[in-house]
Write a structure and sequence with these properties.
The protein is of the alpha+beta class. The protein is 58% helix and 8% strand. The strands form five sheets. Strands 1, 4, 5, 6, 7 and 9 form a six-stranded mixed β-sheet that branches. Strands 8-13-12-10 form a four-stranded mixed β-sheet. A two-stranded antiparallel sheet has the order 2-3.
Length: 671
Amino acid sequence: MNLIHTNYVNTVPFSTNRTNYYVYVPSQTLLRKKKSKHLQMRLTNSAADGSVNGTVPRRSLTALQSAKSSTALEQLDIERGVCVPFRKYSPETVRNKVLESRGAIFSLISRGVEIVWSLGLYWSALVYDFLVGRDEEVVPFRARQLRNLLCDLGPSFVKAGQVLANRPDIIREDYMNELCILQDDVPPFPNQVAFNIIEEELGQPLEAVFSQISSRTIAAASLGQVYRATLRDSGEDVAIKVQRPQIEPIIYRDLFLFRNLASFLNGISLQKLGCNAELIVDEFGEKLLEELDYTLEARNIEDFLENFKNDPTVKIPRVYKKLCGSRVLVMEWIDGIRCTDPQAIKEGGIDVNGFLTVGVSAALRQLLEFGLFHGDPHPGNIFAMRDGRIAYVDFGNVAVLSQQNKQILIDAVVHAVNEDYVEMANDFTRLGFLAPGTDVSPIIPALEAIWQNSAGKGVSDFNFRSVTGKFNQLVYNYPIRIPERFSLVIRSLLTQEGICFTLKPDFKFLEVAYPYVAKRLLTDPNPALRERLIQVLFKDGIFQWKRLENLIVLAKENVTKMSSNPALQVKEIPSLYRQGSRDWKVQRKLDLTDTIKDGARLFLIDEGIRRQLLLALTEDSKLHIQELVDVYRLLENDIDVPSVALEVARDFPTVVRDLMLSWSESILADR
């Protein structure tokens, strides 16, 4: 095997991240039957231990007692609407892992003294600034001092600082801005150490697997570093991510100390955030420990590949599962152009508008369609392929949104459109931003002011950074906690909007986002989205004709933009998509066949909807024929009337059956 010194044009700065497999559970069961969750988990554990008739063996009693103490983790599961079957993190696991090592007590004491001393000195400086009345004027200096302090304290604190950079509920915005530039680039550890780790994970010499490997690291971070190599068997270029040696004991030790320190801050945290400080540490610890297991990142890549398998606008690298382990990850090398280099993208002949449209659509699909999204899409993790596709790397830091969370997010969008600020505030509680039972009345005027001020500017001046700036002030002044998964959502949207502005300063994020959401509302057959569409079209019981026209115009705009995108031209679509399980078809027209069919069914079956639509046609004592004509003119080139009529006719027997069932149920109910 040749060790080569390479000067690759495109480098991949992977940073170690994670995800876990989540099993969706009925959200109503979780919310209504919190006590039964213990019973379900107990019976499951009993079955696994070989118990009979629900009798719990003695060896499982310890596990049950440990489960009772993990109330913070249970609260997280309930908020998420998911359960985590294979949890890497729990306070008990961390404690046992730390205390079982030799010299644990001495290591904990020395590290604890170092942390308390360093943070104590910094806190004393802040108190002194406040007492002498200069606390505001020295904020930039103290923010830089905090960033340097976190770097000096090691990888756990670097990761903690990166999390705090997205938590306006915990620290001020000016400190957040400083922590946003917190880098975890560190000097690489020796090549020979890295190569030894690779060989240990592979169980064979490097020469047997790779014909060549770079003599320098492509990127080095606090948790690991990356090499570029070539597979001996196939000649394919790959990226190899290797974990730093002995990093796991350091992370476990710091998490143990974090949680013990958090127990002293519960009172303040409950007052300011409405939750225990331990819960925040548990969120952080769960994410960080999963970042240490590269097998989880390999699963994430497989999930993204599955989600985008029939989308020729998105490139996901292939993972070589047989070559991966808990400390080594081998994936396809992405030969793209960094998003931080607008000139190179233009010189590569890439259509910038088309690329940005693809990127925004891919991000919205992750968030609203799949519920599995990239949590760290900074410019080093997103590449522009020369055929116009967008490519993602670094799939450790991903987050999962349950079906329940996705529906509440869509509810929040609907409530914003309808300017229903009371329900918007209640959405905060349902998503976990506010503790159950919190009085939302003080927050409603603030939400109204933020939204009206931002939305009133129009699409041309709207940007997420201005909205989040005002939102940051809101969460800092009220007992609002931003759940970890939503802090990732906010960071993801802000980062991608920043990339858009870098490539095209006058790019309008909402000019792409609005058409995507409109098309999704009009065409997605999901019953929950059909219900949201009805909520958008009816306000205070009055049908909104103008909204319907706007939705159609925006949806058609999305179809036009995507169908004309260079990445979607059939001649450039890779054979992988043409030969897939579902042939890819470029959608040239807005297809509302299913929507019209469902609308006809609803009109016949649902008396309330039928009455509202008839009222909409006769509102203000006149027939609204012109509105119908306007809607038809918008769709006349997109609707194949014979095909739609045929689909409605095919569905007619089912509609008649449902109509008869509905009629019989109403008769029985009257009796």
